[in-house]
Amino acid sequence: MFELPPALTFLAVALILPLFPKKLRAWFFLVAPAIALYQIGGLEVGTRVTFSFLGYELVPLRVDRLSLVFAWIFGIVSVVAGVYALHLRDTGQQVATLFYAGSALGVVFAGDLFTLFVFWEVMAVGSAYLTWARRTPESYRAGMRYVYVHLCGGALLLAGILMHLTETGSIAFEAFSPSAGAWLILVGFALNAAIPPLHAWLADAYPAATVTGAVFMSAFTTKSAVYTLARGFAGWEILVAAGVIMALYGVVYAVLANDIRQLLAYHIVSQVGYMVAGVGIGTEMALNGATAHAFTHILYKGLLFMGAGAVLYSTGRSKLSELGGLAKAMPWVVTLYMVGAFSISGFPLFSGFVSKAITVDAAAYAGVGWAVLLLHLASVGTFLHTGLKLPYFTWWAEDRGIRPDPIPWNMLAGMGLAAALNIFLGLYPQALYAILPYALDYEPYTYAHVLKASQMLLFTFVAFWIFRSKLGGEPLIPVDTDWIYRRPARISYFLGPATVARAFGAVERGADTLVQGAVRVGRDPVGWARARLRGVPGTEGQEGALEATSDSSAFRVSMTGMVSVLLFTLLVLMVRILT
Amino acid sequence: MKPMSRFWKVVLGIALAASIAADFLGPEKEAYAIWDQKVFFAAYGFVGCVVIIFVSKAIGKYWVQKEEDYWEGTGAPEPGTAETGGADV
Which chain B residue's Cα is nearest to A257? Predict the structure, then answer.
């Protein structure tokens, strides 16, 4: 059982799930991560499962410490988010989620690039369905854009893999050396990691997804990409700059976002920036930091999306300019959300504090001072938006008289589980440090660490309180790099698909007219000739001759004759080919 | 915007003062970089927050923020509409 890739467990449950009664399907969903976690617990470092396919050695299961960390958190978040989604009665979403989560596990255990690519693409389709499943015109369009962008990324990845194969003769998924193929693969990974300018799909699709779908989406796509970057591109210096830019880019756009789930989506970009920077630094400590931060990020970001989803579920609203004064009506949601907010902001005793500091300290030890300063600035922005702006304008600020509907017990239970895990890791970080890819001797709770975090958070709060009137939601949208493909979409549609479609239509109509004419002539050649001659100067009297010598079917080709000619032609061709 | 109550002002004031005092009363350590200076993170938190708010707002106002209907009419037309040449296209 432990030799089977855990991804297969998810895919098997996805195929069986529709056979269960509708009410039991949400519970049966949990069977997949439960078995997968049991499998992951039994996997030993060094395990490899291989088989030969078309002369290539495929490795669907390659177990090492790096893949195990990501596998653990993907399994855990599937349980937590699965509990949050227990009220769901949508088989399509459940099956798509199982394919999505299973493929994410497939990616982290893939030891070769072909296997990786297959799971990579299944992830894209599974996650796109979670956007479409909201069944609104906007979510349909956002899902289509999501699919187009990810299929383009997939095409680049495949091109890179094939070039890499040509260059090296190997499809093994190991650390890459700089080459044209490796750069293309990097672009494919960077798109899923949401590195600007390839990130706009994230802030476009996640706010459009279903309440539960967004929670799963926040966990898998970007973090599986972080895994692939850590595996293939550790130490590539360009990623340090890319990561720092990401961290600040997300912060700037989070100021401008009015939709609470879009704000959180931009903070995924920001937080993944820490991980990408850590990968770029490439030391053992930095890779541990990137991995640890991916682990905690999945837990607290999932919790934050659950909180925002609860607001959307109970009020039908998600814009800051339409929210406010909900704290008394949903005290548990705001309390549990704040656990996630404290975690992402790096409050001592919460999970983000014990993971974020590793990457930043690794940058300091590596002598990348500018990155240290800018990553700290991103931390300020994180607390400002996720810990202050979003909760203040959603649950406090102006009371708009909204009376939210009650939310199902399981949504609170899912949030409670995620909150408990965030607090557990904050209090007992050694549980996380013990499973990181490299041995780590790190103490987050030093006097200096706690003091600098406290100072930064307290004074960020003071600045927020003074200028909070500037941060209220506005009924505006921030335009991002998706402008490149969204704004000219109509023009490119008319120049591309529409022109091809119209040309195809013209050819089709022409062929249709030609065939109709041939049929008309063939059905009654004499009648057709008579009709042509009628009224033509110099043919007077000939019509009568034709009428006198023939009836309407006199010159019609007989069906027997036509079939005989065809069969004879076929016979001649066969004889010609065979002899 | 509701003002902060006196109670919370006092709590916040004590917390701010304590965080500054702790920097001077705590163990001395070697300053290797600018972020090792005393009260650096207090200043960085406040100034950084102000910079983020105003720079982001300026970028939004003068560049990237648009009306909510900005994307309307920019995508490909729906299938089956007159613009696409009817349902066949």
Answer: B65
> Which chain A residues contact residue B66 at CB under 8 A?
476-479
Q: Supply the ipTM of this predicted assembly.
A: 0.89
Residue whose tokens read 């297969």: A8
Amino acid A145 reads R
Q: Which alpha helices (DSSP H) does A85-112 contain, by range?
A: 91-109
C-alpha span between A289 and A276 (Å, rounded) = 10
Asked if A480 is an interface residue toward chain B (Cβ–Cβ < 8 A), one would say yes
> Mutating which of B56, B65, B81 best tests the A interface, going by the most A Cβ atoms within 10 A?
B56
Q: What are phi and psi of A450, to 5 degrees?
A: -65, -40
| B20 touches B39 (CB < 8 A) | yes
Measured between beta carbons, which residues in chain B are less than 8 angstroms from residue A454? 19, 22
Report DSSP state, residue A313.
Answer: H
With vertex at residue B77, the alpha carbon angle to CA B74 and CA B79, rounded to the nearest 5 degrees, is 160
Give the Cα separation of A160 and A185 in Å (integer).
5
Which residues, 6+ apart, have CB-to-CB distance to A398 below 8 Å? A324, A325
pLDDT tens digits, one per residue of A120-157 = 999 999 999 999 999 999 999 999 999 999 999 999 99
Asked whether A355 and A442 are in contact (CB, 8 A), the reply is no
Which letter does DSSP use for residue A235 in this model?
T
A568 pLDDT band, cuts 50/70/90, is very high
Is residue A422 within 8 A of residue A296, CB to CB? The reply is: yes
Q: Are A317 and A402 in contact (CB under 8 A)?
A: yes
- Evaluate whether A314 touches A364 at the Cβ level (below 8 Å): no
Cβ atoms of residues A463 and B45 within 8 Å: yes
* Nearest by Cα to A273 from A200, A367, A375, A381: A375
What integer pLDDT is reported at residue B86 of this predicted model? 43
d(CA B78, CA A373): 48
Helix ranges (DSSP H) in A428-496? 430-433, 447-467, 483-486, 489-495
Q: Are A58 and A52 in contact (CB under 8 A)?
A: yes
Residues A235 and A281: their CA atoms lie apart, in Å, by 5
- CA–CA distance, A13 with A513 (Å, rounded to integer): 53
Contact at 8 Å (CB) between A418 and A306?
A: yes
pLDDT tens-digit readout, B26-82: 888 777 888 889 999 999 999 999 999 999 999 999 999 999 999 887 776 665 555
Q: How far is CA A13 from each of CA A16, A19, A123, rounded to the nearest angstrom?
A: 5, 10, 16
d(C-alpha A376, C-alpha B52), whole Å: 12
Q: Dig out the tokens for B7 from the structure.
A: 């109670």
Residue A59, SS3? strand
Radius of gyration of chain B (CA): 26
Q: Are strands A56-62 and A48-53 parallel, antiparallel or unpaired?
A: antiparallel
pLDDT confidence bin for A518, thresholds 50/70/90: confident
Rounded Cα–Cα distance for residues A263 and A319 (Å):
10
